[in-house]
Automatic annotation (TrEMBL):
This is YitT family protein. The chain crosses the membrane at residues 9-27, 47-68, 75-93, 105-126, 147-168, 174-193. It comes from Ectobacillus antri. Pfam families: YitT_membrane (PF02588). It comes from the Bacteria. The keyword Cell membrane applies. InterPro entries: UPF0750_membrane, YitT.
Length: 202
């Protein structure tokens, strides 16, 4: 229990709620694609018919273990908190949420709103020493090695995955998702670095 700092944990849980709400009510309901490990899992599902639940788990576990070794036990614990709370919130919203936000005819608006909310949720989680999965840890590690900001690393990683997704998605869907990812990267950096003290990683 000494590795759990409850103020950090509560902010990570709140960030996960914002993240889940944005993904479900903006991205999913308006057919915007996904980057990161979720996007890779969708590609694997498309061509090999393997469940994204299995793929994301196989991708996450090694990187959580790497994060434990290189970035510290606190990050690993906080990642478990972030990933678990995100999954719970998303499952509850998917099943019980009465809200439907149809912006399919206004994908520019959807991509901007989605990017702002996802970036805010992700920034809160990272700022308080957490992550939502292995791709977050990978971005943190690349940021430390390359000195690129976390948001820029996210943008490059997600853009590569989304370009690969053109094998089964339309240019229109991918273009608006890349716009959302760019907004998300900017907001993530704004939230993560908008204080004098460095973000907590270990």
């Amino acid at each position: 229990m000494k590795w759990i700092r409850w103020k950090e944990a509560s902010m990570i849980v709140f960030g996960s709620f914002v993240l889940a709400a944005a993904f479900y009510h903006i991205h999913v309901q308006n057919n915007l694609a996904e980057g990161g490990f979720i996007g890779i899992a969708l590609l694997v599902k498309q061509y090999f018919n393997i469940s994204p639940a299995v793929t994301t788990l196989l991708l996450d576990i090694p990187l959580i273990l790497v994060g434990l070794k290189l970035l510290g036990k606190r990050l690993a614990i906080n990642t478990i908190i972030g990933a678990t709370s995100f999954s719970i919130f998303y499952a509850l919203m998917e099943r019980y949420s009465p809200f439907s936000l149809n912006l399919s005819q206004h994908l520019f608006v959807a991509s901007i709103i989605g990017g702002v909310l996802v970036g805010a949720g992700l920034g809160l989680i990272l700022r308080h020493g957490g992550a939502t999965g292995g791709d977050d840890i990978l971005s943190l590690l690349i940021s430390k090695i390359s000195r690129l900001s976390v948001g820029k690393v996210y943008f490059v990683f997600d853009a590569v995955v989304l370009l690969a997704s053109l094998m089964y998605l339309s240019w229109n869907e991918v273009a608006y998702t890349i716009l959302s990812v760019a907004v998300c990267a900017y907001i993530t950096d704004l939230v993560l670095y908008n204080r004098k003290q460095e973000p907590v990683y270990i």
